[in-house]
Structures are given as C-alpha cells and as structure tokens.
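Weekly structure sync, notes
Attendees: PL (lead), two postdocs, one rotation student
Agenda item 3: pending single-chain targets
PL asked that the sequence for the first pending target be pasted directly into the notes so everyone works from the same version. It is reproduced below exactly as submitted, 766 residues in total.
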Amino acid sequence: MNNLLNGKSAAMMLALSLVNVTAAFAQDDNSSAKEEGNRNVMLNAASANGPREIQIGLPSADVNVLENGLPVTYATNPHSVNTIWRGDASLSHQGLLKIAETAITTGNIGYAVNSFTQKGQKGFNGTLNYKSNHFGLQEFSLNMNGDLGKDWYYSFNMYQDFDPGTFKIKSTPYQDRTQIYKALLTKKYNGNRGEFTAMYKYANSHNVYNYATQSAPFIYVGDGSVKEYGDFKLGTTSYLPIDNEMTYRNMRTGELEQTSLYDACLNKASEVTLMNSYRFDNGLNWKSTLKYDHSRGAMVYQSPMSIIDLKSAANQGVYNYMYRDIDGQTKAYNGQYIQTRMSCLNAGKIDEALFTTELSKKFSTSTFRLGVNEWFYHIDYCSNTTMYDQSVPADGSYALRVWDANQRDSYFYDFNKNASEYYKGSENKLALYFTHDWDVTSKLNLYYGARLEWQKLKGENAAVKNANGEFVGRFADYYLGTTAPDKTKIVPADLSYNWINYDFSVAATYKLTDNFGFTGDFTYIVQHPKFEAFAPATLPNVDKISVPLGRAGIYYNNSWLSLTSLFSYISKTNNNTTLNLQHGSEIKAAPMSYDIQTWGWTTDAVAHPFKGFDFHFLFTYQKPTYKKYETSVTFSDGEIGKINATGNIVAEIPQILIELDPSYMITKDIKLWTSFRYFSKTYANINEAYYFNGHWETFGGLNWQATKRLALGCTVVNFLNQTGAKGSIAGAELITKDEAKGIKNQIMTGSYLRPFTVEFTASLKF
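Predicted structure, written out during the meeting:
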C-alpha cells in the first residue's frame, strides 16, 4: 500500500514543486545563500504538527527535513518525520533549503526544511512554548540552556503533544501523542575556534492521525462538488469503527496475532549525535556531524476500498451481514451500505548511522565547499495486511465492524493477500560533493556544484518467482515459509545492487541594472530505486531515474517591491508504484513504472507599499502529465482491468495555484496577518473520470509581543469554513470518463479539507 501512496505523493510533489520556484530571487539580501525566504514552512492546511508538503521536495515521496545537517530520518516509511521531529523550542533556526542546495548535499531534488538544535549559551536561558486549539489540543515545548564554566555549555529540551484531533475516536483519547527529549553538552576549545557537541535524543510517538483522518464518506454530486452524507460531518465525525483490536497473520512467522491500532503505530527512537566544527588560521572551516539512531518505525493505514449497496436489486439475497451488539449478541445488519477496508500494519526495526563532513573557505568574491556523506541504513521491515468490512452510518454514529455470514464467521479475512510487504537488509550511500558560489563580476553571480554517489543495496525481499520465472504475487494467508497455490515455496529472495548516482546544478543571476536582471538555473539528478521500492511482490524497474529541472526568467527589485517571473520544466522517469485495482469485491495489485513531466509559469512578488504593510503574491500555472502510464490485471472472473493514463493530467494536482499573504503591523508589537491559497480543479482518479472543483485554504492570525519576554498569538485555520473532499476517491482507479458521466449523487469516500480550527499560542522567554 505504501508504494501506491508514495507514487501519488511523488507525482504531487513533482508538480507542486513549481509553486515555489521563485523564492530564491524574492528574498532579502541578508538571508542565507543556501535558504529561501517568504515561505511559511509550518503553516500547514493538512496537518497541525508538520511542515507543508508543498515545500518538502521531489521527486522522492520522502519528506526532506534536516536537523544539524543530517536527515531527520533516512526513509519516511515506516518512520515518519513527525514522530521524531517538531518545529519546537528546541530549534535555534528553521529555514528552507534551495532546490540546488538540497540536490547537491542530499542527492534529492526539491525543497528541504533546514533546522538546527539550540545549543547552550552564556548565562541561563529558557523558552517555554504553549499551543492549544478549541478541539482540546495541548502542546508544550521547553528549552533550557546555559553555561557550566570553563567553556562548557548545556541545553535541555522537552516536547509534549496531547492532540485529540478534530473528532473523537475510540481507540485512544489522542490522535497524536508524541514526546521528544533532547540533551546537549557542548565544549568550546582552542580560543573558541573549535566547538564539540554531544546530543542524545529520545522520541516516543503514536501517530494515530495517520489512519484516523485518511477518509470519510460523502455524496459525489457529479459536477465536481460533494455534499455531506446524512449527518456525517467531514472533518469532525469519525469514520473508524469502535473496535480497537486487529487480527493479522505475521508475514515472518505465519502465526495469527492480535494487536491494537494504537500499539501498531508506536514509534520509538534513541539517537546519539556528535558534532564538531573548527576554524583554521587560514580561514578554512571544517565541520563534521555523526548520528546513530536505533528505532522502531511504524505507520498504520486504514484504506477504504469498495462500497456495497445492500439495498440494490442486484445485491438482494447475495449478502448476509451480521454484527455483534454491546452484549456480544450476533444480530443482522440492516443498513444500506457497507465498505471494505484494507488495513496495512507497517513496521520495521531500524539502525542508521549518518555521517557528513565539510570543508569550506570564503574568498574575496566566492565561497567554495567540499563535502562527504557516508549514510548507512539497516532495516527489518514488513507490512502485515488484513481486510474487514464496516458499516457506513448516515446518522454520524460510530461505524460497526460487520461480516458476511455467507462467506465467513469472523471479521478479518484475506490476510496479506493484497498489499503485504517485506524486505530486510541495508542500504549505503557514499557521496562526494562540492559547491562554488562565485561573484564573477559585480553584475554576474554563478552558483554551481556536483555530487557523485555510490549506492549499495544488499538484503532480501519477498518477490518470489515460480518455476516458470514469473512472480507469484500475494495470496490469502501469505507468509514466508508457506506454499503458493502453484506449489511454489515462499522463501526470501536475495537482492544485491551497486549503482553510481550523480547530479549537478548551475544557477546564474545577471544584473542588467541595479533593479532589473535575468535569472535561471538547471539541476539534473540521476538516482536509482531506494530499498523500500523492493517491498512489494514484484521487483521494481531498476533503471536509472533521471530528473531534469530547468528554470529561466526575470527579476525586478526596488525599495518596496521584489518580483520574479519564471518559466519552468521538470520531469522524472521510472517512478515505481503499485496500484491496487478493484473489480467488485476483488483487489489485485498492479506494479508499474511510469514517467511524469511538468511545464509551468510562476510569478512571485513581495511588496511593502507603505509602512507596516507587507504583501506576498504567488501565481502558478502548470500542466503535470503522465507519460508511459499503462498497466493491466486479470481478475478471477476473467475480467481484464486496464489503465492507460498516458497524457492525462496527474491526479490530485491543480493546474492553477494562487497564494496571497497580506500582513499589517497595527502597532510595533501587534501584527495582523492572513494567508489565502487557491487550488484549482483536480482529478480524483487516474483516468480523469472524477474531479473536485477548486477550493481555497485560508489562515489568519494576530500576533502580540505583549512584553519583552512574552508573545501571544491566535490563528484561525480555514476561517472561510470551507468543507469538501480532496485528493482521490477510494476504489475508483478503473472508472473511465464514459462510465462516470452517468454517476450522480453517489456515495463515495475520500480525504477532506481540514475543518475550521482556532489555535492559541504563547511563548515565554526567561
């Protein structure tokens, strides 16, 4: 299942990356040469606790977040960034790395959130941050740091999150329960030329929101709009059954086991980081960072699949759904709809050791940097999958788990049949890179760099072939050691790969006048599949993945306006994904590889027309399309499900995006601000059959520096109170445009807009 999600996420990030292409040229002169300005990194319409997906990076589906120069997590499935990192009081700095900088230093294309941990300073210093909302969120973040004398410094950090979400569920009182602790000890030496820091971090997180907020039922009207299904309120009503227990078959042992949804999404991490920096007499600067992390990463998906109308004439007498009441008595289910759900319990034991060292020197007109990455990642991972059916209550009550007594006598079935995954082993990346930022003349600036990387994979997976050399695929009660229906023994398959990856980037800015000039950049990256691409029942396309990104345009700056307008092109080859295609109640996995390309035009402006007032405007037109997007599967009744989406607009991606960010300083201590983001029509399936109309995401707030030490704030999310669906429609991949023409006022399920939320913040310095 994660490969399907990763494929869609990669496509989304590839297209949406064009939204932010101009920030490098619309920033203040004193901002970092590596970072971009005017981007609300943590202002997020999709999550209350993480950075914006739109800015995180492409083409990888991983969220690029760095802390102290190293990735927060090597791979986000199954260990997501939000379970071990938050933009809290423990950070002395947060920013957004430019695309070229991310490519050269990490090997990924896209934007990356850049952060640094707060180290100890002279005296005693403290920061206490508090956040709440009208749904009951309680979030605390505390940093205390100071000096111990003789050039020794300390810093302690604590983060606590108690988030019940925007609706109540029965599996736990919190949809996010996260705690993160950090302790740092720093020694400055040799006249403050050198600095050595040791840091320990412990994180414990239950990311319940990942499965609790994935989907909800609504009525698809047929014209791109949706309306609520009965009394079910999108974003404030739970679509999870009351039951918390899950039964699954262990992919490794074949044993039937039980767990709770809450326990299944437990993430734990113990991490040690060593950092050293030194400034030599000749102006050469050296810094090194080493991190070792031992963790359990986990993600739970509760993916809605087909909806069955029990009252339709075709289904009369076919099904016999039952449920158990509060007393445990078996009763007939008389509702109209039931929905099948595929549960994916993803978890892995992880050990990673990441090391980066850099030498840099600033000359009179340029800065040169030479660096080395040595990143080692070991994981023992599997995704145990199970199916169950649930009611679709129209009265807003909690769903019931139900079972069809004509087919089975228990809730759970088809263990590991659909999207189960397994891989075990290591991935190592050794890379050498350099950058040169050069003011060739007073009018011409060049930034260029390159990276050469050796990627090695070694381990095993469950892509098993039969005697004819064909992949066996998954089947009910699949596990390592069992025998397939064609008598093939299911044993792990060894894998070993060695690849050379490389990328280079060049950017140029030419000042035609003091205010006007030309700017452009080109980045090209060659990658190969990551270890997680080997999780499904078939091997991925292991050909090289190439990603060219080119941009060119003009800029204009004066005392009150910074404006940039750019044309952009980006593409990515060999995206590996697995589609779970549905026919009736049957689900078949369809592995595939495809390409994406996007043309875009973006205009970005930051204006200060009068004292106290700032305005940021961003407009993007883009046309992301699929290339070589074809696959098919044969179902058990002989029906062939085909998809040919070549030339189609990428699902879930708008072609027009607008961002408006006005703010005004009412007094020197009080700031009023708003943010409006418009997303145009998006297709809700790959065949462009279903679509959602455009919508606005809105934010607004008031920030008050009450005293020198106390800051207060109030933020309203979705203050226009827009409701509706977004993303894709569950189980609709095979629906064609012709079939969709006659579909009106039909119940469907999908994701939805974040509901109206009022948030309160306070920050105390002491």
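Discussion points:
- The mean pLDDT is 88.
- Helices lie at 2-16, 99-106, 209-212, 261-264, 737-741.
Action: rotation student to compare against the earlier draft before next sync.
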